[in-house]
Amino acid sequence: MQKCSEEQANHDANATLSDPFGQRFSSIEAATNAKRDWLLSRHSSDFWEKLKQLKEQQ
Amino acid sequence: MKCWCGKVLIIDTRRLESKFRDDGKDGLIEGVNLKDRIERNMNASSYPFRVDDSCHIFRFTSTGMKTIEKVVVFDPLPIPGIYMLVLGDFDEDEIDVGVKSNNRDLEMVLSTVVKIIAFFLSDYPDASIFVEGSSAARNRLYRIMIEKERKNWRELFVIKGIDEDTFEVFQSGKNYSSYLISLCKT
């Protein structure tokens, strides 16, 4: 139970670090970089591999 | 003002503004005049938009309850041919990519974004746009908008609905975590 809580806490901390929403940016570049980092951290490597395959099939 | 990583930044919007010219000439393209097919196929009203020289950054003005400058950016993901969509508000020389504007013109804003996507894809016909909102609620909103205009966009776009284990052609009534939008080639 404690382990789950720790994992959840770590997950929340990471989410806070990488979540660009609700934040304000001084440039478009900073905003896009933050959103890209957020998207990449949000999905598994399997997800991105599937997406890549989907794109290649098009 | 602090940015998302906590650093204090000096704001300089001149560099940003220099990307856009207001003389109606070089670099400033009135998108509404260029894509007749898009105009014919989309029912909902939309705002005129401007595009920068790179054709990756678009701007328009939302005029609902307030006047809000909006920006739409297409930025490549590390998958060849796939760009993520970033939608943000300019406010006091800063960009907010998660704000709920509550400007009572949501339909018109989303319709404008759809036209901007079509505009971008007409210049990059082999590209696909990856769209994922900041929350499940926002993704549902995107779904509702896609469904609402479905009979109009189905001639223009192929839209895939994506969830962690699901990659399929968009189906009405299903919630997805993200969408992949490509130009219809047939």
Which keywords apply here?
heterodimer; A: 58 residues; mainly alpha; 3 helices; 78% helix; elongated; disordered N terminus; B: 186 residues; alpha+beta; 10-stranded mixed beta sheet; 24% helix
Textual characterization of the structure:
The complex is a heterodimer of chains A (58) and B (186). Chain A is mainly alpha-helical. Chain A has one domain. Chain A has helices at residues 2-18, 28-42, 45-57; one strand at 24-25. With 186 residues, chain B is of the alpha+beta class. Chain B has one domain (14-183). Chain B is built from 5 helices and 10 strands, in the order H-E-H-E-E-E-E-E-H-E-H-H-E-E-E. Chain B has helices at residues 14-17, 36-41, 106-123, 136-148, 150-153; strands at residues 29-30, 49-51, 57-63, 67-76, 82-91, 94-96, 128-131, 157-163, 166-169, 178-183. Chain B is globular, with a radius of gyration of 17 Å. The model of chain B is unreliable at 1-34 (pLDDT under 50). Classes of the chains: A mainly alpha (58), B alpha+beta (186). Strand 1 of chain A pairs antiparallel with strand 6 (94-96) of chain B.
How are the SSEs ordered, and which strands pair?
The complex is a heterodimer of chains A (about 60) and B (about 190).
Chain A lengths: L1 H17 L5 E2 L2 H15 L2 H13 L1
Chain B lengths: L13 H4 L11 E2 L5 H6 L7 E3 L5 E7 L3 E10 L5 E10 L2 E3 L9 H18 L4 E4 L4 H13 L1 H4 L3 E7 L2 E4 L8 E6 L3
Parallel strand pairs in B: 5-7
Antiparallel strand pairs in B: 1-2, 2-3, 3-4, 4-5, 5-6, 7-10, 8-9, 8-10
Give helix % range of chain A. Answer: over 70%
* Chain pair with largest interface: A-B, 28 and 42 residues
What about the largest sheet of chain A? Answer: none
Helix content of chain B: 10-25%
* Radius of gyration computed on alpha carbons of chain A: 15 Å
Structural class of chain B: alpha+beta
Counting DSSP H or I runs of 4 or more residues, the number of helices of chain B is 5
The proportion of residues in beta strands of chain B is: 25-35%
